[in-house]
Amino acid sequence: MTRSAHTQQGMALIEALIASAVLGIGLVGATQLTLKTLHMASESRQHTVAQHLAQEAMDCLHARASVCPVEEKILVQGVRFTRQARSTPRGNGQIQDLQVSVSWAASGTNANAPATSGASSENRVEWHSSASALPAWVTGP
User: Fold this and answer.
1) 70 close to 84: Cβ distance less than 8 angstroms
2) Which of 15, 44, 63, 140 is the least buried, fewest Cβ under 10 Å from its Cβ?
3) Cβ-contact 79, 105 below 8 angstroms
4) Dihedral angle over CA of 44, 46, 47, 51, nearest 10
5) 48-77 pLDDT tens trace
6) How confident is the model at residue 137 (pLDDT cuts 50, 70, 90)?
7) Measured between alpha carbons, how far is 4 from 121 in angstroms, rounded to an integer?
8) SS3 (DSSP) at 110
9) Do strands 79-90 and 71-76 pair parallel, antiparallel, or not at all (unpaired)?
10) Exposed e or buried b for every residue in 36-46, given b needs 16+ CB within 10 A?
């Protein structure tokens, strides 16, 4: 009887070690999943901010305001966005081609560091539209 009790004590230690290893692997997987989720949420937030900045610039161009800045750098929640807006006449000048571009450094990267392996570390949103001038009979004499 004493021999089987001795063997049983060693098995409990091995079972505890295996259970600890399985638990550790599960915790590492859950941590990786959480980190990836936080990274994707940050990227989604940055993309939403860029869309909002592009909408503001496009609204300014559609309003034909002469005060629309051509290029500006905007800092939002620690991320530097560069917004460019351009209006180009087409044809006889009655139609304007509108272009807005918003770019920013990808989250978790150094904006001054060169891109490695050909992958771009910069994100970009580009909007294109056009606007025509109102006919003279609408605006009046």
Assistant:
1) yes
2) 140
3) yes
4) 140
5) 999 999 999 999 998 876 788 899 999 998
6) low
7) 63
8) coil
9) antiparallel
10) eeeeeeeeeeb
Is the pLDDT reported for residue 12 higher than 90? no
DSSP E strand stretches across 39-121: 71-76, 79-90, 95-105
Distances (CA, A) of 85 to 8, 18, 24, 39, 81: 76, 61, 52, 29, 13
Residue 48 is encoded by which pair of tokens? 């939403």
Distance CA(110)–CA(120), nearest Å, equals 12
What is the C-alpha separation between 127 and 84, in angstroms, rounded?
Answer: 10
How far is Cα 105 from Cα 124, in angstroms, rounded to an integer?
Answer: 9
| Token representation of residue 10 | 């060693």
Residue 56: CB atoms within 10 A of its CB come to 16
Q: What is the pLDDT of residues 70-121, one digit of tens each?
A: 999 999 989 999 999 999 888 887 888 999 999 999 765 554 555 444 455 7
